[in-house]
Amino acid sequence: MIEGIRHSKAEKRIFKHNDPKDLDRQLSELGREVPKIIAFESVYSMDGDIAPIAAICDVADKHHALTYLDEVHAVGMYGPRGGGLAEREGLMHGISIIEGTLAKAFGVVGGYITGSAALCDFIRSFGSGFIFTTSLPPHVAAGALTAVRHLKTSNVERELQRDRVAKVRTRLDKLGIPYMPNPSHIVPVMVGDAAKCKWISDMLLDDYGVYVQPINYPTVPRKTERLRITPSPLHTDADIDHLINALSELWSRCALARAVA
Questions:
Q1: For the stretch 62-82, what's the b/e string if a residue is b when 16 or more beta carbons lie within 10 angstroms of its beta carbon?
Q2: pLDDT recorded at residue 4
Q3: What is the DSSP string of 201-228?
Q4: Which residues lie below 8 Å from residue 18, measured CB to CB, with a gap of 6+?
Q5: Which pLDDT score, from 0 to 100, does residue 66 have?
Q6: Are strands 97-101 and 37-41 parallel, antiparallel or unpaired?
Q7: Residues classed as catalytic
Q8: Residue 219 confidence (pLDDT) above 70
């Protein structure tokens, strides 16, 4: 998204995170005749917070702006048919363009946008990044289609993931390991030290066979370094126990603070 904005060479403004009032204020400074597009995410992958989609759509309607919603961390996992947060909230009609991925929940590679036929045709015709991109291999497209069709009718995986996420949080609470609370499936375990964050990640993989990605500056501000845990529907109780016990041992070895119950 950021690279697209940069390459467009259009004027850009950055509104305060998840703040429709600031968005409204900034758009009010522009004339109604000025073309505008509001780009934002539904689930933010670093903190796991969720955008106020309805309020942002209301601001967009007020100022005749297009909306571009990144649902990369939500498609497949939210909504009755896995369409994402906009589907879950009944707001698909208010979004001009939705960006998704065929990786993550759908399990293959690639990405897509959705929108009106005219808008998609415009992007297909004028988007240089698309024009010079190789098409997906047929077996990847077939795998993606199968995954999308399955998750449009099955809620089993979504329900299992919510259960797994809740179990991870409960275990972390019992051990006093701090994490950032949020309404999504993302569990950011807060380390607050870049070197220790990387070391814990390395030790988890080398000594315990567990891969958890360390998130350090500049992806997040300094002193908010974290391990980003995203439990899947297929993680068993034993998998979660193994992760939490390993994390607890390494937490003690790093002399990191624990929350007091």
A1: ebebebbbbbbbbbbbbbeeb
A2: 87
A3: HHHHHHHH----EEE-TTTS-TT--EEE
A4: 49, 51, 52
A5: 97
A6: unpaired
A7: 104
A8: yes
Residue keyed to tokens 């590679």: 109
Rounded distance, CA 41 to CA 44, Å?
6
Cross-strand bridge partners of residue 164: none
pLDDT tens digit string along 109-132? 999 999 999 999 998 898 887 888
Give the pLDDT mean for 17-23: 98
Q: Specify the pLDDT at position 261.
A: 61
Length of the chain: 261
Token code pair at residue 118: 């005219």
What distance in Å separates the CA atoms of residue 252 and residue 258, rounded to the nearest whole number? 9
What is the C-alpha to C-alpha distance for residues 144 and 59, in angstroms, rounded to an integer?
A: 34
Q: 12: buried, middle or exposed (CB in 10 Å: 19+, 13-18, 0-12)?
A: exposed
Judged against a pLDDT cut of 80, whether residue 251 lies above it is answered with yes
Q: Please, which residues have CB within 8 angstroms of residue 95's CB and are 6 or more apart in sequence? A: 53, 57, 67, 69, 86
Cα pseudo-dihedral 150, 155, 161, 162, rounded to 10: 160
pLDDT of residue 133: 82
